[in-house]
């Protein structure tokens, strides 16, 4: 992912959060943590964003932030860096740029879709110890030299991804059956031939 796209996705994710960090933020949000120019960021808001960011990452990564003072310090530095870049982007009126608006809409749409899938499928996808053991034994040669606990976690993640992919495909098939999806054959033919792509995409960014 390019630096430009990472910044835009971050801006989209932070838009609502930034609006909550104004002068009225002192109520039930604990002490202020940072002040960047005219913006005040409260400790409670900072923790809430941390909770959301870590809500879907593996437990090992969560513990790295929770248990390591060094990791927490690094996270705070990264947070400040992102806020500085975000503030400068707003100062330059980047949110008003047509392409930036579209990319923020795309990021929001992708986030909503991912959250829907997580909430819809998360409790339905389980990997048993027996499945992990069987898959571990099946891939024992490839995992030779890997710490057993690390290897079993890798196997668990692999099985979770496989089951998730199947579940997502089934869900999308069900949604497709319920929805009315129409395709314009003329436009679809243009897409198949690549008509207009050169003009639409232009040259790749440097």
What is the rounded Rg?
A: 22 Å
- The total of helices stands at 9
Query: What is the first-to-last residue Cα distance?
Result: 14 Å
Q: List the helices and strands in order.
A: HEEHHHHHHHH
Would you count the extended β strands for me? 2
Shape descriptor reads: flat
Mean pLDDT: 85
Largest sheet: 2 strands, antiparallel
Strands ordered across the widest β-sheet: 1-2
Structure classification: mainly alpha
- The helix fraction, in percent, is 55-70%
Low-confidence stretches: 1-26
- The share of residues in extended strands comes to under 5%
Give a description of the structure:
- This protein has 206 residues and is mainly alpha-helical.
- The chain has nine helices and two strands; from the N terminus they run H-E-E-H-H-H-H-H-H-H-H.
- It has helices spanning 3-19, 43-54, 59-67, 69-91, 98-121, 129-138, 148-178, 185-193, 197-201, and strands at residues 32-36, 39-42.
- A two-stranded antiparallel ribbon has the order 1-2.
- Strand 1 and strand 2 form a beta hairpin.
- The longest helix is centred in the C-terminal third of the chain and has 31 residues, at 148-178.
- Mean pLDDT is 85; it is low at 1-26.
């Amino acid at each position: 992912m390019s630096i430009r796209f990472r910044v835009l996705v971050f801006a989209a994710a932070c838009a609502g959060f930034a609006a909550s960090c104004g002068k009225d933020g002192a109520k039930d949000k604990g002490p202020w943590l940072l002040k960047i120019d005219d913006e005040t960021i409260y400790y409670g808001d900072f923790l809430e964003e941390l909770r959301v960011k870590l809500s879907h990452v593996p437990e090992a990564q969560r513990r790295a932030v929770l248990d390591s003072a060094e990791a927490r310090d690094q996270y705070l530095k990264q947070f400040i860096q992102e806020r500085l870049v975000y503030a400068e982007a707003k100062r330059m009126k980047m949110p008003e740029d047509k392409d930036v608006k579209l990319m923020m809409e795309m990021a929001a749409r992708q986030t909503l879709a991912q959250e829907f899938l997580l909430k819809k499928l998360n409790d339905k996808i389980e990997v048993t110890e027996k499945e992990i053991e069987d898959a571990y034994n099946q891939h024992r040669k490839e995992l030779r030299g890997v710490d057993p606990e690390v290897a079993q976690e890798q196997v668990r993640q692999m099985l979770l991804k496989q089951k998730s992919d199947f579940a997502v495909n089934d869900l999308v098939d069900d949604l497709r059956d319920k929805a009315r999806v129409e395709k314009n054959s003329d436009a679809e033919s243009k897409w198949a031939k690549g008509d207009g792509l050169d003009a639409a995409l232009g040259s790749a960014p440097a």
